[in-house]
Write a structure and sequence with these properties.
The structure holds two protein chains of two kinds. By secondary structure, chain A is an all-alpha fold. Chain A has helices at residues 18-36, 43-71, 85-112, 118-135, 139-157, 164-195, 200-209, 216-232, 241-248, 251-276, 281-302, 309-330, 333-360, 376-379, 381-395, 401-416, 421-447, 458-463, 465-471, 477-480, 485-491, 494-503, 515-533, 536-542, and strands spanning 74-76, 81-83. Chain A has one domain (18-450, 510-542). The longest helix of chain B is centred in the last third of the chain and has 28 residues, at 58-85. Classes of the chains: A mainly alpha, B mainly alpha.
Chain lengths: 549, 101
Amino acid sequence: MLAAQTLALPKISYWAIAPEAILIGGALLMLAMSATIRSKIDPVIFSIITFVTSLASIGAGVILYINVLKHGKYLAIDGALSVDGFGIIVGMAVGVAIAIFALSSEGFLSREGWDGPELLALGLLSGTGAELMAMANDLIMIFLALEILSIALYVLAGMDGRRTASGEAAIKYLILGGFSSAIFVYGIAFVYGTTGSTNLAQIAAFFATNLLAHDGLFLVGMTLVLIGFAFKVAAVPFHVWSPDVYQGAPTPATSFMASVAKLGAFAALLRVFLSAFISYKQDWQPLVFGVAIATLLLGAFGGLVQNNVKRMLAYSSISHAGFILLGLVVGAELGAQRVVLYLIAYTFIVMGAFSVITVVGGKGDNGHDISNYRGLARQHPYLSGSLALFLMAQAGVPFTVGFVAKFGVLSALASSGGVGSYTLVVVALVSSVISAFYYLRIVVVTYSSPVGIGAIEPEPLAESTHVASELESFNVDELSMEYSPLKVAVDYDIEEIERALDESPLEDPIGKVPLSSTIAISISATATVVLGVFPGILFALVSHATFLF
Amino acid sequence: MTVSVSWYLILGAILFTIGVVGLLVRRNVLIMLMCIELMLNASNLTFVSFARQHQDVGGQADVFFVLVVAAAEVVVGLAIIVSIFRKRLGATADDLSSMKG
């Protein structure tokens, strides 16, 4: 029988949970405001509150970080949280992602006429889950944080009531997310059953002094935990939900899934496998190796056949997940540090890219086909230039932070000297080259002539006498047909067309770019370039990203 | 007479398998949500069985967390399902196919 045990309540260290508590406070404040204030509140105010809240959370993270550097890492709240460099730095990256999310959502909310605080409040709550996941030191704590992160994201995915795709995305995300959570919990149950604890420190201590005679059950549990994580980070073969959900969700919500959800899930994945399960490295390393190869290749090839930019970026994020998994294959603290570096870099470039995509989507959030990007450079050179920068950074072009990130992971992998590590480096490089193709495709389209699909109607062009006289030299009907920009250059005098276009007023589906979006894009672009040119800052930062164990 | 812990674990595994198979085979979204519940409850049974084996209250406490999460997930899930299928006749997963590729 179970003896009557008294539950000793743990001492809560409020400093340790300050970054998360601030985020929850901001979300509750916004919900309370919208419930009590009768008059309509401008979405700008909610965006400002979210932005300030995320900055405060980063500030709390900085204080915590300095404290840890001075006095060392420690366990908080009865061992449930591990306050160490790794968790705090990932938590601060989550704060940065939320800040950029707040900025790029402001333009989205005003454009779509959504006046409630739900999008931003759910974003803050979801971010709380991600920050907790980064610090959690107990499998049940990780599970709870994962659910705080995910349940808010299910709602975010389905928030757009006008598009059926949004609801469809929410259902798909919910069913597959719930499925993976259940697998994750079942795995935790087996780990608990074989080691006697769900606390990562105690599991590590158990394996330091014990050897399981029959480790079958533990291996099942470990594999199930890995599968649960693989679902959340969209690693192959558990990635199928990701393109549909990315496409269907409102674009700010998609940016959130691509950045915050991955930050949290990868942080917890690394902590679990590099601290608690490190003695079973021989068993999980081959699994992660295979998953990483499949993820890299599918992320590269899958994006080639897509015509929707959000789907392309979904495959791009699958490919990034493959790179991040390489850091886990390294199987040592160096790998974890390089993963943190990758995650920080990835946060900036993916949030920047999605800020541009949010603007280009236009009213109704529908303009995500690659044809909507045709001729973007003519009307919005700043948007197309920064989009090109972010996509080049994702491809890993030097002097961007994307190159630093990929170099960091690959050099750690190559120096680890594990079995097949060079094979993996080669696969990663090939995958990077292939995925560069679809990044470049978007860039080329934005800089091509806007004549062709969508951007200009052939009929008004023909009716306008002024333009018609300019264009008499070729058959106007041909314009309505789909053709490549190359064909234009061959068949027609491109100068003529461009002059005609400059004179005819074009319908601009994007309109004026909101100031907040411009700020969001500028912050991301500056970080992408500065951290790419001076990677020493990042390397110095992540050298403190160590685990407590 | 005591029942060995293994039997509870086997029951948990059977329930979990029923949940997985149900989720993969059935096409009704409500049934799929129920299958997820079944999987979570199979995990709960496993937790409690192991807690008894270890004479440790921790595993039993974990069950409460899982229960709370399961309840929260169902609340959100049903709300999403209702909001989507209000305009449709049946709650069938095959109808959700506007996105492909």
